[in-house]
Specification:
Blueprint lengths: L3 H4 L1 H5 L1 H15 L29 E8 L6 E7 L8 E7 L7 E5 L13 H5 L3 E5 L20 H27 L5 E7 L1 H12 L6 E5 L5 H7 L2 H8 L6 H15 L27 E2 L2 E2 L2 H12 L25 E2 L4 E2 L3 H12 L11 H19 L7 H5 L3 E7 L7 H15 L2 H5 L2 E6 L12 E3 L1 H11 L6 E6 L5 E7 L5 E4 L11 E4 L4
Parallel strand pairs: 4-5, 4-6, 6-7, 7-12, 12-13
Antiparallel strand pairs: 1-2, 2-3, 3-5, 8-9, 10-11, 14-15, 15-16, 17-18
Helix pairs in contact: 5-6, 7-12, 8-10
Bound molecules: calcium ion (CA).
Amino acid sequence: MKDNTLTSYLQIRRTIFVATLFSTIVLLRAAETPLKPLFPGITPLCPCEDLVKVSLQNTTIESAKIDPSNGWCRVTAVVTHPPADDKVKIWIGLPVTNWNGRFQGNGGGGFSGGSASSLRGPVARGFAAGATDTGHEGGSGSFALDENGRLNWQLIIDNAYLGIHDMTVVGKALTQAFYGKAPRYSYFVGGSTGGRQGLMEAQRYPDDYDGIVSACPAINFHRFVPASLWPQVIMLAMTNWVPKAKLDAATAAAVKACDPADGVTDSVIDDPLRCSYDPKALVGTKVGEDTFTEADAEVIRKIWQGPRTVDESFMWHGLERGADMFAFADTTGSPLKGRPFSISLDYFKYFLVQDPKWDWTTMTPARFEQLWKQSAEQFGAIFGTDNPDLTRFRDRGGKVIIYHGMADQLIPAAGTIDYYKRVQQQMGESKKTSQFARLFLAPGIDHGFRGAGPTPIGLSEAIIRWVEEGKAPDKLTAERKDSNGKITRTRPLFPYPQIAKYKGTGSTDDAANFVRKAPTH
Ligand SMILES: [Ca+2]
């Protein structure tokens, strides 16, 4: 059976929240290992309060105070971009003792650029750390429109890329002012939107970070965000709202059909891109009191296939088989009605249709296709974060680790694989790319890094070792724990396209019994 955390309704509704919290989760998992201090014994040059006097262009330092709860120096600053009167809020945390000599930028989730709470993990490990709201508060997409209902390009740009760069510049400058030394190394860590922000830094501001950890990145933003409305568009066009129980039945059937293909029957499809299970097998079967119909099968087939134009050409990747479908194909009430994913709905309302009162139930497949094209034209270059040219980042010695769960219910891993392949084409063959950028795929893991598969650990250590010691991550470890926190399964993860294959003997819960293999396709 699939992990029940994956199928719980409440968990899914909380996914945006999970994404927001993601960067904190990564760091808490890594908190055991103390980092080597790069400037042993270094102490601040000035009292924390003096940092309000630091002068930076277009920047107001609003406050600089010792936080009595943990003893750090906490600074808040606001950056603006004249002639716009935007306000990019920035939070910086500086350890008063035991600064490890490094800076860490932290990412956000959904439309939220980041949060002050994400500093806790890194500062506790001795980093000077920063985060930003990227110019607007909260997780709604409403910032995209100004008070006259027109696109607010400054706030869109702040959210798409400028805010994280501003935070990085301010964070490094305050670090230098506080300790009298610039950070020797800088890292960016984030998942979902944070993962997108990390790759955006590598693409647009390659000097900002030496190392980037980009988890389940929200790249290809202008494609996958509108694509996430597709399940609702299909159900609306077919007037066939498929209840959660049927979606779950199809997911369970796909997992059952494709799970053993990787050599281990463990409720995980290691490579869902090779699973072609067709839900027509369920037609006529009972799901609770209900009977699975041909129309239900058609909806689910189209969800897995992903959006297609009216004349059936490819628009974007669908959800992988095994990923929960309910986040995007959510329904409610009696009779059932569709309930679109909030980020997707906001994107259509505020960015594409530009009408906060837009009634999504007026959508047709033809209109969907038209808005899809508009999305690429208006926002592709700004929000897409899909530029494969990482030459400047590579040449300055930058390293990036990307990882993505293969049962991600919000961002199909296929889009990340597609981007990575494009990086390989652009930057030279796979060997050249692997010298600075590596992708790890985590089977059976969702957007919150839960699920039937084991969760990758040690990302922060891996990127630091790569940047500072030149040791590229040749393997990551993934762990699965029970509800008491006991490790019940370990697996190795190898850099894409290599896969972990069971040797055929020994426990399938022990990483030692898996070997590196090249995929057969
Ligand atoms: Ca399996």
